Amino acid sequence: MNAHKNIIVALILLLLPVSSFAFPIKAGEKDCIDCHKLKVKDAEKIIEKAVPGGKVVGVKASPIKGVWQIDVEREGQHGAVFLDFSKKYLIGQIVPVEAIGKQPPARKVDFSKISLADAVIIGEPTAKKKVIVFTDPDCPFCRELHPIMKQIAAKRKDIAFYLILNPLPMHKESYKKAQAILCAKSLALLDDAFGGKAMPEPACSAEAVERSKKLADAFGFNSTPTLVREDGTVLAGYLPEPKLLEWIDAKK
Length: 252
Fold this sequence. Notes:
By secondary structure, the protein is α+β, with helices and mostly antiparallel strands. It has 8 helices and 9 strands. It is globular and about 55 Å long.
């Protein structure tokens, strides 16, 4: 994600009860995820000890050679920790030297370039304020956000959420669920997915899912939920209802 390339995680310092480490890359070590593997279940064992109560939401190669990035959530806070390919050193924070002591700028994208053709809507399509949400039917944090959005839309007729389904690869059943939801363009089916109910077989091809995934990739959105306000401001993760409303209404 581009935001991680500019400045990676201050929040994790609130979560992490271990010290940061610096270490050299061993001679001959390759920066190759084909040669070095970190399974989610193995990352979970590490995070269970390092960040009590933390949940692993993603594992990927970091922008730094020889280092894994483990995305973590705890008590509504999102951050990342880093693990070298030898799996011996856990790192709490990586920031560019020029960014030290500075507040990271909010990431912005061109809202008008995000197609809403395949979006499932919560709220009235005529609402003045639109919020785009990249979500995943098997994402636990999306499940937490979902009723919050429904509550807001019920109270605020001027706000509508446009949900773009981006099934992540670590959620093995998510793609098929997203396909079934988009075939029917059904908010009720998405409700069922988050409620753990059985899903019907998809009634169409996976073209809509593929379009949605390509759209997420084009903007570098590789975690869920990811929200985009009409002024293009990006919010990774979710907020409780009062804070989310503040964020939505902060649009100038």
